Fold these 4 entries.
Entry 1:
Amino acid sequence: MAGFYPRPPTQRLHFDRLAALPLRRTAVSAPILKTRTRLSEVRYEIRGELARRARELEAAGRSLIKLNIGNPGAFGFRAPAHLQQAVAGNIAQADPYTHQQGLPAAREAIAAFHRTRGTPNASPERVFVGNGVSELIDLSLRALLDPGDEVLLPSPDYPLWSAATILNDGVPVYYGCRPDHGFLPDPDEIEAKLTARTRAIVLINPNNPTGASYPRALLERIVAIAARNGLLLMADEIYDSILYDGAPFQPLAPLAGDVPCLSLGGLSKVHRACGWRIGWAVLSGDPVATGGFHHAMDLLGALRLCANVPGQFAIGAALHGEDTIAPLCAPGGRLHEARRAVIESVAASGHLELVAPAAALYAFPRVVGAAAEGFDDHAFALELLDSEGVLVVPGSSFNVTWRDHFRVTLLPEPDVLREVFARIDRVLARRAATAAGARRRGAVA
């Protein structure tokens, strides 16, 4: 069926492993607990089978370089001092629950920030604070979907979007963002995949895993599709200020105008505070058209009481205080130089090519040439982990049909990334030599 991409069998490995564990027998054997059937459709290899293998190797004394998660604190980054001070200075006020949509002052700070961007109808009443963007993705899809409703998702996507769609009884339908098109979506393909069950178009911009940043004209065409078809736009903009070499960022809500749009952001990436679990969603568009959805989001937020309170005190300082991310992304800054190390390492390799990331915290290289013959991204990632001590994420984990990419994070020091790509090249050189040997044997036969 168009729009549905096959999932490799590796997604079931951890279920099979759990099923194989010996059961402790008691006097009365209890029935085996049944789990939700649709979990078999969910995959999250970023923390999946390969990550479990990495823990086994570390338990055995191996030292690994783990590039599977965009977690700044794990690579020596800290949340800015003025954010830490904002939390510490208000900790005495953080004990009670707050309003289900978030602290009033925090929501006003978010709304004010969005007003500077031109977001229509940006007010505290239309802001929802959550335990990270991840929770808000789940809540928003739960508020939107009836069983069988479809959500248009980019391929590659951040797999939480697919998982949350499936677990809220929706159907993910993928539109391609291909490397030969700079990983940008094709609006014509998006429109061709609409059906009577389509409810939303998801945009991840700047993009994880590819690092693409979408131009205004492209976004305007997608807004027009949503307007013609009465769809909700869902803009995951968590990397909105992580930009390199003059790459622009165009927020979606100002272009959407009266078209319903949910814009998601947070403290985890730009402000390097992943563990604080603070994200937000801003609902824009015609208030009448979005009223029911607003009520549903408020109800679901109330059922979980409220988001983490201490971290909310940092929101105003983050959005209206010192810009601490731009220096890291500028030439000479750590993220810029890490990105440079990846770009130069790929250019020096005979086995890789790369669409240089314009934004975000990742690179998404492609294996080419003899090393790509018979290439399987999961098998490669496992060999790289076992033989070279480097953990990456197979590209197919991001819901693509092709199996020749992998994702690395740009968070390590530049010299560490150069060493990583030297190890990657060793594995790929062995694969290329094996492929060449097979061709020679075939020619002789």
Entry 2:
Amino acid sequence: MKEKQWKRLSVQSVMLLVCVLVFGFFYSGDFPGSSGRTVLADDIPDKIVSEDLADLDDEIYVSDTGMGEAPIHASVSTLKERSHTYIKLVEDKIATGAALYIRNDYINKSVSLTINETSEKDFSINNIVRYNKGKTISGKAAKKNKSDFLRNISVRSLKLKSGNYRVIVDIKTKKLYESCLYEIKGEYYISFAEPHKLYDKIVVIDAGHGGIDEGTSSIDKKYHEKDYTLFIVQEIKKLLDKSDIKAYYTRLDDRYVSKLDRTRLANNLKADLFISIHCNASDKGDTTAYGVEALYSARCVNGASITNKRLARLLMNNVAEKTDNRKRGIIKREGLYLLHHADVPTSIVEVGYMTNKSDLKCIRGKLNRKKMATGIYDAIEKAIDTAS
């Protein structure tokens, strides 16, 4: 090779090396580390994990984050057997192949219908016809019309990157319904049925605290009540899903829910039982208190076949026996919001003390939380049997 070619090659190599070094210095993207995980250039973790959950194997139970429930294929007779209260969507306003989903918000007595990938941007409330026990209603919600079961209805359209539209229909009802989306011979209906006409047994399960309301915590502030009440509810849900008891939940993820909304859900459902799950804590500096408690109000619930006190005793006994823990007793508390405002049989169960070393270990143990859930489930079954 000639001398000039050697010099040219050397200069090119040096320039390439300089480019690589400069690129590496200024580039702030991701580089795969030796461990195989993504390492950011400034060493900031790509997922922030709460310190109180960092050493746990559990994951917070999160509710479905998808669009909602897809339509169920059915017949007109199925629709009317379920309920004579329903709405029908005008067929020619929904494009062929459009995807429809429904999501229920029981606390706010509302339903959200999503129509995805439709070519119609001018879909309006006039394209929805309402039927209630033989009466036909259309247009805006008629609050003074006793036949109209809607409090409010609105439609909004969002343009997608594909050029099509996503239509969202927000429906608020005058009372709480269990809604279901049907597809019948290419037409779409939403059926509205009162829960007690569908289910013989209804319970509301409340995971205490949530979101910005952390509840009590361990002495070192590392473990928070809101997380462990949710873990226990996750285990209860697994049991109730396999039973003939219909359960509603005040929260299934880490969110704030007001005491008013929690209580209102139970009252609107006319639930057979309302059970709120909590962890206890003793006065500052005291780590000796331990065991299972249940709280109740002496209020009489009209038409109930089980008293609040009886429900509290069932919860305390069954949870304590399943976890082999101390029965601290049942306590009458008239000043607590849930107990004072619930119009259905209600109790708060305190599964253990986060300020006690032994109880905290029990609460943190996944197997023990399953035992707590089983104890609560057994108490529910016994309470419903008593009411029956």
Entry 3:
Amino acid sequence: MLFEDEEDIFSGGSPKKKFFDIVYNANRNLVELELDRLVERLCLMEMILEDQMGEEAMEREIQRRTVEESVELENHKMSKYIELTANILTQNE
């Protein structure tokens, strides 16, 4: 796994841990803005999938991929934490 050594990434913690460290200490308005963008994007993607597949088929596909692609999912989540952390930090300067 790409992010296997949680204590080595960013010298002292996983991308997820660093993200939450930043969220708790960065400017609240910037964090809210970035989280709102993330939720908006998630909602749009759900709407697209529901339109294309239907809600039940979408939920089945999510469950299937959660199990079958767990390593890729974890890697993608860690990449997303890194992206969100970078977005917040660059706006917080």
Entry 4:
Amino acid sequence: MKNEETIILGAGLAGLSAAYHLKKGYALFEKDGEIGGMARSVHKDGYTFDYDGHLLHFRNEYTFNLVSELLNGNLAPHKRNSWVYSKGIFTRYPFQANFYGLPNSVVKDCLMGLIKARVLSASHLNSNGSFESWIIKTFGEGVANHFMKPYNKKFWTVDLRELTCEWLDGFVPVPDLEDTVTGAISDNTKPYGYNSRFWYPVKGGISELVKGFSGKIRSAHVNKKAVTIDQRRKEVVFEDATIKKFKNMITTIPLPELSGLLVDMPSEVQQAFSMLRWTSIYVLNIGIKSDNLTERHWVYYPEENVIFYRVGFPTSFSTDAAPENRISIYAEIAYSDVKKIDKFEALPKAISDLKTCGIISEESEVEICLPMDIKYGYAIYDSNRRHAVQIIKNYLERFEIYTIGRYGSWKYMSMEDVILEGRALAEKMNSCNKYKVEAKA
């Protein structure tokens, strides 16, 4: 392997997108034995399990066309069918637009709170800019207490007053008052949110997208784990003792991991790295002996007595995900340094809760379980995040090292966002290289 102008560390979706869009020489390195990062699928006993739920949502025509081309017909659209399970019943997602079927007292709380929130000005609410204050200001106390606060506390694991609103960016739907009233007196099915429509491979799981990218780029070097990045000498040392020099580097390594690879960082940068916080996801992928295929795509569980915050049903959007007369699910459990879980007890508790929630009838229906422990599930958007990330990025860019992707940018991003970020950086680097060539000429 000769030295390349650009080294890409990490062959997940961000690294693959950057490689696909780069026009000049690069080398792509992946620490694992296969490419794909979190956009991988595992095939076991006839089941296909993704690394957690990975659905494609498109706001950008370019991304839709690119993914369609890469999947070459192996892509199907779906109209979202998602629900919330609370108070012992199912209501449609999003909760804040669908109170129909909830106990009358809950419906009253939610509607009155929402009306008061819309009437009162923000100044009356003494908003301090936290996510919790945004919830109350936007939806009122009823929606906050019956869903928004318990669900988000369960998902983020931290006090919602610690979270900023920087991550929202359309991820939380805000229906108008008339639609909410309609959703309180009838089974309202109006679509809300960025994921009201999604796409998923017909066969093979989300790793089919990775295969599509891999056929369009140079082969990645797998089992190449970086152990040291000397930003001043512009060298990366791998676990197998090989050393590669670079002019530019694109890294998708999670920022907390990257901090242990760099050498001789200023104290300010070290401190910035230490400020980063995250929530982890323990995913239980479960195969079930049943032909009772639900039409639901996923369900949210806000109540604390249920261990998982969400359950998804892959066989509802791809019958190829399980053998005949079988269904598959993934149950997601959030944990962090402030909310621990006992992973040995998680499975029996989850199976018990699946039975209580009516997803399985008997424990004997479970024939396979494949746990996946995702350490860096979501970056926590506290008051330190933006400042810390900016310090880190500014420092690294002095050495022409660029961090991208969900974990490299330390952002809440969709798969489309990740693909577009890889494209944007690659095009920026392409333009710089073109300018340098023209200047020499």
